[in-house]
Write a structure and sequence with these properties.
It is a single chain. The chain has 2 domains: 270 residues, Alkaline Phosphatase, subunit A (3-Layer(aba) Sandwich); 106 residues, Alpha-Beta Plaits. The strands form 2 sheets. An 8-stranded mixed sheet has the order 10-9-11-1-12-13-2-14, sandwiched between helices. Strands 3, 4, 5, 6, 7 and 8 form a 6-stranded mixed sheet that branches. Helices cover 31% and strands 20% of the residues. By secondary structure, the chain is an alpha/beta fold. It is built from 13 helices and 14 strands. Helix 4 packs across helix 6 and helix 9 packs parallel to helix 11.
């Protein structure tokens, strides 16, 4: 029977500041701890997998989940790449460590970039500053509709974001503008992602739509996706996975409209026969709640996923394993910024029925030095040779 790994990334579900968090202006951040302040937080199934037994876990109040005895395999993972964004985090999960941070633009993009963008797109630019995505469309939306200029903004992450009203610039046209921007933003201006941010509505009440699309920098080296597909394995991406890796190494992918859709698509794919990796990103924690500093929203989203976990584990076949992790933090209780936060992430792993994976080390695997251990463990479990596994970083922590 084919072996399968179902890898789910709870986008931004950090579990406490890393030792160098102060260097990223994130001292004291802890996404999980902030979520436990909310009465909506509930995670008994994540607790069974080992969430509250991980090294250094902190909560804001006593939780009944803390009394649950874990039956899974679990660890705390530290990011070794120099960043705290989606692209670098996922690349490291997939075995590619980034020793240098991707470029960021706290003063906005330089004139040389904006000039070339205007020439190639025929569109002028508004804003060109770090900005909240929900605030920028309301501050610049009226002028955008009057002038036809697009709203360009960034954040603490390595992103070039382009917002446009769907009535003025339909999403497909906006995507074409983003592709042109992606072609410009290479080399020393090679930002991690160019992001299309369509919005609708009227003056004073503009809202972003679900037709966001990311155009990522091509990974500069191979990841576990390439190793798996090169060795004849299926590599299926759900949600943002295709965009994060610019399609590199994937054999199949599907987009989602949010967490609920992502969970349903995961369940559907688990009913199918495939041999390899199902790689899932659940983005709502980050996009809808972390950046908006919505503690109750974040906690409720964790509780919803936890409630659906038994459906996922019930579909695990005899030789399947489920891994759950995150790519960075986005502490909803940290009011100094609305950006991502430099945090450890959880590693939770189980086989069918929340049992530890047969033939592997079980229980607490301690604190690991890199997210890339997930990639190495995935490749080893799926039977990839040591020589092929040497193409990526990380150590097998399950074997």
């Amino acid at each position: 029977m084919s072996k399968r790994v179902i890898l789910i990334v709870m986008d931004s579900f950090g579990i406490g500041e890393e030792p160098d968090a102060a260097d990223f202006e994130d001292a004291g951040t802890n996404t999980l701890r902030s979520c436990t302040k909310s009465p909506l937080f509930a995670a008994p199934n994540l607790a069974r997998m080992g969430l509250f037994a991980i090294d250094g876990i902190e909560v804001a109040r006593k939780l009944p989940e803390q009394d649950i005895v874990p039956t899974g395999t679990y660890a705390r993972l530290q990011e070794s790449s120099m960043g705290k964004d989606t692209t670098i985090g996922h690349w490291e999960i997939a075995g590619l460590i980034s020793p240098k941070p991707l470029p960021t633009y706290p003063q906005g993009f330089p004139e040389e970039v904006i000039k070339e963008f205007t020439q190639k797109t025929g569109r002028g630019v508004l804003c060109n500053l770090p900005y909240s995505g929900t605030k920028v469309i309301n501050d610049y939306g009226d002028e955008h509709l009057k002038t036809g200029k697009v709203i360009v903004y960034t954040s603490a992450d390595s992103v070039f974001q382009i917002a446009a009203h769907e009535d003025l610039i339909p999403p497909e046209e906006l995507y074409d503008i983003c592709r042109k921007a992606r072609g410009i933003l290479t080399g020393r201006h090679g930002v991690g992602r160019v992001i299309a941010r369509p919005f609708t509505g009227e003056s004073g009440n503009y809202t972003r739509t679900s037709r966001r699309h990311d155009f990522s920098l091509l990974p500069p080296e191979d990841t576990m996706l390439d190793v798996l597909s090169d060795n004849g394995k299926d590599v299926i991406g759900i949600g943002k996975i295709h965009d994060i890796f610019a399609g590199k190494g994937l054999t199949e992918y599907t987009y989602t409209s949010g967490n609920a859709d992502g969970i349903e698509k995961t369940l559907e794919y688990m009913d199918r026969d495939f041999d390899g990796l199902l790689f899932v990103n659940l983005v709502d924690y980050d996009m809808l709640y972390g950046h908006r500093r919505d503690i109750d929203g974040y906690a409720g989203a964790v509780a919803y996923f936890d409630e659906k976990l038994p459906e996922i584990t019930a579909k695990l076949r005899e030789d399947d394993i489920l891994m759950i992790t995150a790519d960075h933090g986005c502490d909803p209780g940290y009011l100094a910024t609305t950006d991502h936060t430099r945090e450890y992430v959880p590693f939770l792993c189980c086989g069918k029925g929340f049992k530890s994976v047969a033939g592997t080390r079980s229980g607490n695997l301690g604190t690991r030095p890199t997210f890339a251990d997930i990639a190495a463990s995935t490749l080893a479990y799926l039977g990839i040779s040591e020589a092929e596994r040497a193409r990526i970083a990380g150590s097998d922590i399950l074997g």
